[in-house]
Design brief:
alpha+beta; 668 residues; single chain; elongated
């Protein structure tokens, strides 16, 4: 039977396992924490020889129950959440299977892997700092596993682990900066069952209102130069051309349609976007934008799409052209039919009003301006708390309640234009943004979600119109907070959100400072891609040639290895009482002559052996060892100064070379 794992090593294992599991616990069911406590208690009882190891039948049954528990909780065994949960459960159950220090090593190595899996769900600065602490504890557990029970020193294990990690830090930085960039684990698109906050594929009553109550960050934008006025920033995410009488939704064939070429007309406006994880593949761009970022493509409606859903922060570059037009050449018959589609019945009053407008205004542009004037002149109200609408939602909104938010106005105007024979669609995305003066970039939150209208006009193509601006210009010019100041509904369901207290200067300064720190972390660390690496090589080394870079990297690595060797070979620091330190100094000096102290050798035996090898130093040796014995064993503290004097005299009298004592060492 294998020897038990030492008690101090088991304590390190339990501590390491606990700290590694903590970041995962908020995403997992409560019973998983109870399971770990049960496994830890069983392991302690095994160590105390009160309980036995689980038998084969119990282990097999536990493995099957683990799979069943994951399936019941997650609904699958394949997704990211299910896979990580299964790994965590097996990591816990491994406690009951450990029989030897070799098994304990497996648990520690699994702990390192689980530390990495936490970054699949979060890559923020707090988690990164905590995971550094986890790595420290895991390395300390490795050190503690090598400590003998008689020399159990947790502080020494932590110091040794910290020293090892600090020594590895320069090599880590060299590899991060110069090793060819590979996609990090968290950038791999893995299926997850976790829902994300963001825009929906369809627009029905209350969608935008719900987002307006969310303080979550949607994306950040950095312009090459001063940011344009907030009132001009309409961030297009998707267009919605299908209307079923209640909800607007995307055209299902949009992904397959070929995108027309972009007219690069007007002043270019370049910017960089870092989009937060949304679980969707749509991106955010200004009108007339294109992107040269790999895995980003432009669709037929002028919006941008990522190659896969965003499961982690995603950075991309884009350039917008202020005077570019979208499909000015005209719409095909199928496109025109799609952009004029309406249900066969419903909203009779709205249809009748559209026909009256059509009879009154010959030109499409004149009719659109008439609709906008209607919203501006009539008593419409912008509110996030509109009354519910019935079967004929557009009729009730336009002629009865006249209260709603951007979704109501955009949907109703698109319906009116289509009923009047003008191709129109709803555009959803975000509007405006908050400038962070610390970093000079814009913050766009979920409460900046917005919907507006695009109508196709001859000679101009798809043109944007915002009916919300006619009703609540403050919403577009100053943001949602200013528009809702009188109503008091801004972030009413998020009382602890920092964005709600932007009027408190010191709180707002802390919030923006922390966000700037996170932004720089995402730009310079998480999104340090091969393009940024090559630019760094050109700036620092004057070249991006991998042969020259490789030679420089090898030189740096060998230099670090040489420095590490010097650190390892440096003399160890003397410790203990003055007498013990004097003993260590003499031992270090005599080791160069082959006369160092032997294991278990007493002071008088060592003195006699040295005297036989170095008879000319017999008097100096006797004086030193007399003082040493008096202080070490008799406790004569007054001999400390005398001991130092005798040690200096003895060290001066010793020969410099080993040849003087050759053949007269330990066996002498």
């Amino acid at each position: 039977m294998s020897a038990l794992i030492p008690r101090n090593s088991l304590a390190w294992l339990l501590i390491a396992q606990l700290v590694v599991l903590v970041p995962h616990l908020p995403r997992l069911p409560w019973w998983l924490a109870g399971l770990w406590l049960g496994c830890a208690l069983w392991r302690v009882q095994i160590q105390r020889m009160r309980w036995g190891y689980p038998g084969r039948l119990l282990r097999v049954g536990g493995l099957l129950l683990t799979g069943v528990a994951v399936f019941v909780t997650q609904g699958t065994l394949i997704g990211l959440d299910a896979t990580v949960m299964l790994l965590l459960l097996l990591f816990m159950l491994k406690l009951l299977e450990m029989r030897s220090p070799r098994d304990a090593l497996v648990v520690i190595y699994l702990g390192f892997f689980i530390v990495a899996t936490a970054f699949l769900f979060d890559q923020g600065i707090p988690l990164a700092l905590y995971q550094c602490f986890c790595v420290l504890v895991l390395v300390a557990a490795l050190v503690g596993l090598q400590q003998s029970p008689a020399r159990n020193d947790p502080a020494a294990a932590l110091r040794r682990a910290g020293g090892m990690l600090l020594q590895a830090l320069p090599l880590m930085l060299v590899l991060f900066l110069f090793f060819p960039r590979l996609a990090p684990l968290w950038s791999v698109n893995l299926p997850s069952s976790t829902a994300r906050t963001g825009l929906s594929e369809s627009m029905s009553p209350a969608d935008i209102a719900n987002l307006a109550q969310s303080p979550e960050l949607a994306f950040r934008v950095q312009f090459d130069g001063p940011a344009p006025p907030a009132a001009t920033l309409y961030w297009r995410a998707m267009t919605m051309s299908r209307f079923d009488g209640r909800a607007w939704s995307q055209d299902r064939r949009l992904e397959q349609r070929v995108a027309p070429s972009l007219e690069t007309v007007g002043e270019p406006l370049s910017y960089e976007v870092i989009a937060e994880p949304s679980g969707r593949n749509w991106l955010y761009s200004l009108r007339g934008s294109s992107s040269d970022t790999p895995q980003v493509r432009r669709l037929a409606d002028g919006t941008l799409r990522a190659a896969s859903p965003l499961s982690s922060p995603f950075a991309y570059n884009a350039t917008a052209y202020s005077d570019s037009q979208l499909q000015p050449e005209g719409l095909s018959p199928s496109e025109q039919a799609r952009e004029l589609q309406l249900p066969a019945s419903g909203d009779p009053r709205t249809r009748e009003w559209a026909q009256r407008l059509r009879a009154q205004y010959r030109g499409d542009a004149e009719l659109i301006q008439a609709v906008l004037r209607h919203f501006a002149d009539q008593p419409y109200y912008y509110t996030l708390q509109p009354p519910p609408l019935g079967q004929h939602a557009n009729d009730e909104f336009l002629f009865d309640s006249r209260r709603g938010f951007c979704e109501h106005y955009a949907g109703a105007m698109s319906f009116v234009l289509r009923a009047a024979g003008i191709p129109a669609r709803v555009v959803t995305g975000y509007q405006g943004g908050e400038l962070n003066p610390r970093g000079g970039y814009l913050l766009i939150h979920q409460f900046d979600a917005h919907a507006w209208v695009e109508a196709w006009l001859p000679g101009s193509g798809w043109t944007s119109f915002d009916p919300t601006f006619q009703v609540a210009p403050m919403r577009i010019e100053r943001g949602l907070e200013e528009a809702m100041r009188d109503e008091g509904s801004f972030l009413a369901e998020s009382p602890l959100s920092g964005a709600r207290y932007r009027g408190v200067s010191w709180l707002n300064s802390l919030r923006l400072g922390w966000d700037d720190l996170n932004y720089q972390w995402q730009r310079r660390v998480l999104n340090f891609r091969s393009e940024e690496q090559l630019a760094l090589f050109r700036r620092w080394l004057g070249t991006a040639d991998w042969q020259r870079v490789g030679a420089i990297v090898l030189g740096l690595v060998f230099s670090l290895m040489a420095l590490q060797a010097l650190i390892w070979l440096r003399p160890r620091r003397l410790t203990g009482t003055p007498a013990q330190r004097a003993w260590q100094r003499l031992d270090r000096r005599l080791q160069t002559l082959g006369l160092g102290a032997l294991a278990g050798e007493g002071p008088r035996d060592w003195q006699r052996r040295i005297s036989r090898a170095l008879p000319s130093q017999e008097a100096a040796l006797a004086a030193f060892f007399d003082c040493f014995v008096a202080q070490q064993y008799a406790g004569d503290a007054a001999d400390s100064a005398a001991l130092r004097v005798q040690l200096r005299q003895l060290l001066r009298s010793l020969p410099r070379r080993r040849s003087a004592s050759r053949g007269l060492s330990a066996g002498g």
